[in-house]
Protein backbone atom coordinates (compact mmCIF):
# COMPACT_ATOMS: atom_id res chain seq x y z
CA UNK A 1 0.00 0.00 0.00
CA UNK A 2 2.81 2.43 0.89
CA UNK A 3 4.37 1.83 -2.53
CA UNK A 4 1.10 2.71 -4.29
CA UNK A 5 0.79 5.79 -2.07
CA UNK A 6 4.05 7.03 -3.56
CA UNK A 7 2.47 7.03 -7.01
CA UNK A 8 -0.44 9.05 -5.64
CA UNK A 9 2.20 11.46 -4.36
CA UNK A 10 3.71 11.74 -7.86
CA UNK A 11 0.23 12.33 -9.26
CA UNK A 12 -0.32 15.11 -6.70
CA UNK A 13 2.89 16.81 -7.83
CA UNK A 14 1.44 17.07 -11.34
CA UNK A 15 -1.86 18.42 -10.01
CA UNK A 16 -0.54 21.06 -7.60
CA UNK A 17 3.13 21.53 -8.50
CA UNK A 18 3.99 25.20 -9.11
CA UNK A 19 5.97 24.69 -12.32
CA UNK A 20 5.62 26.47 -15.65
CA UNK A 21 7.54 24.27 -18.08
CA UNK A 22 7.54 20.57 -18.97
CA UNK A 23 11.27 20.38 -18.35
CA UNK A 24 10.93 21.69 -14.77
CA UNK A 25 7.99 19.38 -14.07
CA UNK A 26 9.91 16.41 -15.45
CA UNK A 27 12.91 17.32 -13.28
CA UNK A 28 10.65 17.67 -10.22
CA UNK A 29 9.20 14.22 -10.88
CA UNK A 30 12.69 12.72 -11.22
CA UNK A 31 13.69 14.33 -7.91
CA UNK A 32 10.60 12.87 -6.24
CA UNK A 33 11.43 9.38 -7.52
CA UNK A 34 15.00 9.84 -6.27
CA UNK A 35 13.62 10.73 -2.82
CA UNK A 36 11.55 7.52 -2.86
CA UNK A 37 14.82 5.59 -3.12
CA UNK A 38 15.64 6.76 0.41
CA UNK A 39 12.66 4.92 1.90
CA UNK A 40 12.46 1.32 3.11
CA UNK A 41 10.53 0.27 0.00
CA UNK A 42 12.04 -2.16 -2.50
CA UNK A 43 14.60 -0.14 -4.44
CA UNK A 44 14.13 -2.36 -7.48
CA UNK A 45 10.39 -1.63 -7.66
CA UNK A 46 10.88 2.09 -6.94
CA UNK A 47 13.39 2.45 -9.79
CA UNK A 48 11.32 0.56 -12.38
CA UNK A 49 7.91 1.82 -11.27
CA UNK A 50 9.04 5.43 -11.01
CA UNK A 51 10.65 5.43 -14.44
CA UNK A 52 7.67 3.74 -16.10
CA UNK A 53 5.26 6.22 -14.49
CA UNK A 54 7.29 9.22 -15.69
CA UNK A 55 7.67 7.79 -19.19
CA UNK A 56 3.99 6.95 -19.52
CA UNK A 57 2.67 10.36 -18.51
CA UNK A 58 5.22 12.51 -20.42
CA UNK A 59 5.25 10.65 -23.76
CA UNK A 60 5.05 13.05 -26.77
CA UNK A 61 4.26 16.23 -24.83
CA UNK A 62 7.05 18.53 -26.03
CA UNK A 63 4.97 20.57 -28.51
CA UNK A 64 1.97 21.32 -26.31
CA UNK A 65 1.14 24.20 -23.94
CA UNK A 66 1.85 23.70 -20.24
CA UNK A 67 -1.75 23.56 -18.99
CA UNK A 68 -2.73 21.18 -21.78
CA UNK A 69 0.26 19.02 -20.88
CA UNK A 70 -0.74 19.02 -17.22
CA UNK A 71 -4.25 17.80 -18.03
CA UNK A 72 -2.91 15.07 -20.31
CA UNK A 73 -0.48 13.92 -17.63
CA UNK A 74 -3.19 13.89 -14.96
CA UNK A 75 -5.37 11.74 -17.23
CA UNK A 76 -2.50 9.37 -18.01
CA UNK A 77 -1.56 9.25 -14.34
CA UNK A 78 -5.07 8.08 -13.46
CA UNK A 79 -4.84 5.38 -16.13
CA UNK A 80 -1.48 4.22 -14.75
CA UNK A 81 -2.78 4.11 -11.17
CA UNK A 82 -5.93 2.23 -12.21
CA UNK A 83 -3.84 -0.39 -14.00
CA UNK A 84 -1.51 -0.59 -11.02
CA UNK A 85 -4.36 -1.15 -8.56
CA UNK A 86 -5.94 -3.82 -10.78
CA UNK A 87 -2.73 -5.66 -11.70
CA UNK A 88 -2.86 -8.13 -8.81
CA UNK A 89 -6.45 -9.06 -9.66
CA UNK A 90 -5.47 -9.75 -13.28
CA UNK A 91 -2.52 -11.89 -12.21
CA UNK A 92 -4.59 -13.78 -9.63
CA UNK A 93 -7.18 -14.72 -12.26
CA UNK A 94 -4.44 -16.14 -14.48
CA UNK A 95 -2.51 -17.99 -11.79
CA UNK A 96 -5.48 -19.55 -9.99
CA UNK A 97 -6.06 -21.85 -12.98
CA UNK A 98 -2.74 -23.54 -12.25
CA UNK A 99 -3.72 -24.26 -8.64
CA UNK A 100 -5.58 -27.57 -8.85
CA UNK A 101 -7.80 -29.25 -6.28
CA UNK A 102 -5.72 -31.22 -3.76
CA UNK A 103 -2.36 -29.84 -4.90
CA UNK A 104 0.53 -28.83 -2.66
CA UNK A 105 2.18 -25.46 -3.19
CA UNK A 106 5.51 -24.12 -1.93
CA UNK A 107 5.97 -20.36 -1.63
CA UNK A 108 8.74 -18.20 -0.21
CA UNK A 109 8.08 -15.73 2.62
CA UNK A 110 5.20 -13.28 1.99
CA UNK A 111 4.01 -11.96 -1.36
CA UNK A 112 0.80 -9.95 -1.71
CA UNK A 113 0.22 -11.05 -5.29
CA UNK A 114 0.79 -14.73 -4.46
CA UNK A 115 -1.58 -14.39 -1.50
CA UNK A 116 -4.19 -12.82 -3.79
CA UNK A 117 -3.88 -15.69 -6.28
CA UNK A 118 -4.13 -18.39 -3.61
CA UNK A 119 -7.18 -16.79 -1.98
CA UNK A 120 -8.82 -16.53 -5.40
CA UNK A 121 -8.08 -20.20 -6.14
CA UNK A 122 -9.41 -21.30 -2.74
CA UNK A 123 -12.95 -20.18 -3.57
CA UNK A 124 -13.67 -23.51 -5.27
CA UNK A 125 -10.64 -25.70 -4.48
CA UNK A 126 -8.86 -27.19 -1.50
CA UNK A 127 -5.06 -27.35 -1.40
CA UNK A 128 -2.14 -27.03 1.00
CA UNK A 129 0.55 -24.35 1.04
CA UNK A 130 4.04 -24.66 2.50
CA UNK A 131 5.48 -21.27 3.42
CA UNK A 132 9.13 -20.60 4.26
CA UNK A 133 9.82 -18.37 7.25
CA UNK A 134 11.51 -15.77 5.07
CA UNK A 135 14.35 -14.56 7.25
CA UNK A 136 15.60 -12.22 8.48
CA UNK A 137 12.22 -10.64 9.29
CA UNK A 138 10.30 -13.95 9.24
CA UNK A 139 7.49 -12.46 7.18
CA UNK A 140 6.42 -15.99 6.27
CA UNK A 141 4.63 -16.14 9.62
CA UNK A 142 2.42 -13.27 8.47
CA UNK A 143 1.75 -15.09 5.20
CA UNK A 144 0.64 -18.21 7.08
CA UNK A 145 -1.65 -16.10 9.28
CA UNK A 146 -3.20 -14.52 6.17
CA UNK A 147 -3.72 -17.93 4.56
CA UNK A 148 -5.28 -19.43 7.69
CA UNK A 149 -7.56 -16.41 7.98
CA UNK A 150 -8.74 -17.14 4.43
CA UNK A 151 -9.37 -20.78 5.36
CA UNK A 152 -6.40 -22.14 3.40
CA UNK A 153 -4.46 -25.02 4.95
CA UNK A 154 -0.79 -24.07 5.38
CA UNK A 155 2.45 -25.06 7.08
CA UNK A 156 5.31 -22.77 8.10
CA UNK A 157 8.71 -24.32 7.37
CA UNK A 158 12.32 -23.30 7.91
CA UNK A 159 14.06 -21.62 4.98
CA UNK A 160 16.63 -24.39 5.20
CA UNK A 161 13.90 -27.05 4.78
CA UNK A 162 13.21 -26.05 1.16
CA UNK A 163 15.01 -29.07 -0.27
CA UNK A 164 13.32 -31.45 2.17
CA UNK A 165 9.82 -30.21 1.33
CA UNK A 166 10.38 -29.81 -2.42
CA UNK A 167 9.84 -33.50 -3.21
CA UNK A 168 6.38 -33.32 -1.59
CA UNK A 169 5.00 -30.33 -3.53
CA UNK A 170 3.50 -30.02 -7.01
CA UNK A 171 4.96 -26.62 -7.87
CA UNK A 172 6.57 -23.45 -6.52
CA UNK A 173 4.85 -20.06 -6.67
CA UNK A 174 6.74 -16.91 -5.67
CA UNK A 175 6.52 -13.16 -6.09
CA UNK A 176 9.28 -10.85 -7.29
CA UNK A 177 10.71 -7.47 -6.36
CA UNK A 178 11.91 -7.00 -9.94
CA UNK A 179 11.88 -8.76 -13.29
CA UNK A 180 15.08 -8.12 -15.26
CA UNK A 181 15.78 -8.04 -19.00
CA UNK A 182 16.89 -11.66 -19.20
CA UNK A 183 13.59 -12.90 -17.77
CA UNK A 184 15.18 -13.64 -14.42
CA UNK A 185 13.97 -12.11 -11.16
CA UNK A 186 15.26 -10.28 -8.11
CA UNK A 187 13.47 -11.40 -4.97
CA UNK A 188 13.90 -12.07 -1.27
CA UNK A 189 17.07 -13.96 -0.37
CA UNK A 190 16.52 -17.69 -0.69
CA UNK A 191 14.47 -17.53 -3.90
CA UNK A 192 17.47 -18.63 -5.97
CA UNK A 193 18.00 -21.61 -3.66
CA UNK A 194 14.35 -22.54 -4.11
CA UNK A 195 14.75 -22.28 -7.88
CA UNK A 196 17.79 -24.57 -7.80
CA UNK A 197 15.90 -27.19 -5.80
CA UNK A 198 12.83 -26.95 -8.02
CA UNK A 199 14.85 -27.44 -11.19
CA UNK A 200 16.77 -30.39 -9.76
CA UNK A 201 13.52 -32.08 -8.71
CA UNK A 202 11.72 -31.09 -11.93
CA UNK A 203 9.05 -29.00 -10.22
CA UNK A 204 7.44 -26.06 -12.07
CA UNK A 205 8.64 -22.69 -10.76
CA UNK A 206 6.05 -19.95 -11.26
CA UNK A 207 6.66 -16.23 -10.70
CA UNK A 208 3.87 -13.70 -10.12
CA UNK A 209 4.88 -10.08 -10.79
CA UNK A 210 3.26 -6.81 -11.79
CA UNK A 211 4.57 -5.17 -14.98
CA UNK A 212 5.73 -2.03 -13.14
CA UNK A 213 8.45 -4.27 -11.66
CA UNK A 214 10.01 -4.86 -15.09
CA UNK A 215 13.38 -3.14 -14.86
CA UNK A 216 16.21 -2.39 -17.28
CA UNK A 217 18.86 -4.41 -15.53
CA UNK A 218 20.82 -7.39 -16.88
CA UNK A 219 22.70 -9.13 -14.03
CA UNK A 220 24.83 -12.12 -14.98
CA UNK A 221 25.25 -13.38 -11.42
CA UNK A 222 24.72 -12.42 -7.78
CA UNK A 223 27.72 -10.07 -7.72
CA UNK A 224 26.24 -8.09 -10.62
CA UNK A 225 23.34 -6.84 -8.49
CA UNK A 226 23.91 -3.24 -7.32
CA UNK A 227 24.46 -2.92 -3.57
CA UNK A 228 21.48 -0.58 -3.20
CA UNK A 229 19.28 -3.44 -4.41
CA UNK A 230 20.82 -6.00 -2.06
CA UNK A 231 21.19 -4.12 1.21
CA UNK A 232 19.09 -1.79 3.32
CA UNK A 233 20.00 1.89 3.12
CA UNK A 234 21.48 2.00 6.63
CA UNK A 235 23.99 -0.74 5.77
CA UNK A 236 25.28 0.67 2.48
CA UNK A 237 28.25 2.38 4.13
CA UNK A 238 29.75 -0.99 5.08
CA UNK A 239 28.21 -4.19 3.70
CA UNK A 240 31.06 -6.48 4.72
CA UNK A 241 29.28 -7.81 7.81
CA UNK A 242 25.67 -7.98 6.63
CA UNK A 243 23.95 -10.46 4.35
CA UNK A 244 21.98 -9.40 1.25
CA UNK A 245 18.22 -9.07 1.47
CA UNK A 246 17.60 -10.29 -2.10
CA UNK A 247 19.14 -12.62 -4.65
CA UNK A 248 18.96 -13.13 -8.41
CA UNK A 249 17.21 -16.14 -9.93
CA UNK A 250 18.27 -16.67 -13.59
CA UNK A 251 15.62 -17.36 -16.25
CA UNK A 252 16.77 -20.97 -16.65
CA UNK A 253 15.13 -21.79 -13.29
CA UNK A 254 11.78 -20.14 -14.08
CA UNK A 255 8.94 -21.98 -15.81
CA UNK A 256 6.44 -19.15 -16.36
CA UNK A 257 5.83 -15.57 -15.26
CA UNK A 258 2.27 -14.48 -14.54
CA UNK A 259 1.94 -10.73 -15.16
CA UNK A 260 -0.79 -8.20 -15.91
CA UNK A 261 0.58 -8.25 -19.48
CA UNK A 262 -0.21 -11.96 -19.75
CA UNK A 263 1.46 -15.28 -19.00
CA UNK A 264 5.05 -15.08 -20.25
CA UNK A 265 7.99 -17.40 -20.70
CA UNK A 266 11.27 -15.92 -19.45
CA UNK A 267 12.45 -15.46 -23.05
CA UNK A 268 9.41 -13.26 -23.82
CA UNK A 269 10.19 -10.76 -21.05
CA UNK A 270 12.75 -8.79 -23.07
CA UNK A 271 10.18 -8.07 -25.81
CA UNK A 272 7.61 -6.84 -23.28
CA UNK A 273 10.21 -4.76 -21.49
CA UNK A 274 11.20 -3.05 -24.75
CA UNK A 275 7.54 -2.16 -25.35
CA UNK A 276 7.21 -0.69 -21.85
CA UNK A 277 10.30 1.51 -22.16
CA UNK A 278 9.85 2.65 -25.78
UniProtKB/TrEMBL annotation:
GO MF assignments: guanyl-nucleotide exchange factor activity; translation initiation factor activity
Entries under Gene3D superfamilies matching the protein: Translation initiation factor eif-2b, domain 2, Translation initiation factor eIF-2B, N-terminal domain
One GO CC term, this protein: cytosol
Keyword field: Cytoplasm, Initiation factor, Protein biosynthesis
UniProt keyword Cell wall biogenesis/degradation present: no
Pfam family membership, one: IF-2B
Cellular compartments annotated: Cytoplasm, Cytosol
Family statement: Belongs to the eIF-2B alpha/beta/delta subunits family.
Known role: Acts as a component of the translation initiation factor 2B (eIF2B) complex, which catalyzes the exchange of GDP for GTP on eukaryotic initiation factor 2 (eIF2) gamma subunit. Its guanine nucleotide exchange factor activity is repressed when bound to eIF2 complex phosphorylated on the alpha subunit, thereby limiting the amount of methionyl-initiator methionine tRNA available to the ribosome and consequently global translation is repressed.
Assembly description: Component of the translation initiation factor 2B (eIF2B) complex which is a heterodecamer of two sets of five different subunits: alpha, beta, gamma, delta and epsilon. Subunits alpha, beta and delta comprise a regulatory subcomplex and subunits epsilon and gamma comprise a catalytic subcomplex. Within the complex, the hexameric regulatory complex resides at the center, with the two heterodimeric catalytic subcomplexes bound on opposite sides.
Protein name: Translation initiation factor eIF2B subunit alpha
Organism: Ceratitis capitata (Mediterranean fruit fly)
Amino acid sequence: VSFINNFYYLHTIIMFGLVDTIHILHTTMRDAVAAMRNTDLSIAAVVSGGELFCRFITLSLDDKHMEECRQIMLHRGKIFLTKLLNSRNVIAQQAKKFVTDGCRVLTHSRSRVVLKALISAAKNKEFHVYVTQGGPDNSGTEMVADLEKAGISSTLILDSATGYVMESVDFVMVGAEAVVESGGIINRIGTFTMGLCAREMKKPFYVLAESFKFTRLFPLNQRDLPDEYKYSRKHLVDVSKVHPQVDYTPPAYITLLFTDLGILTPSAVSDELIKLYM
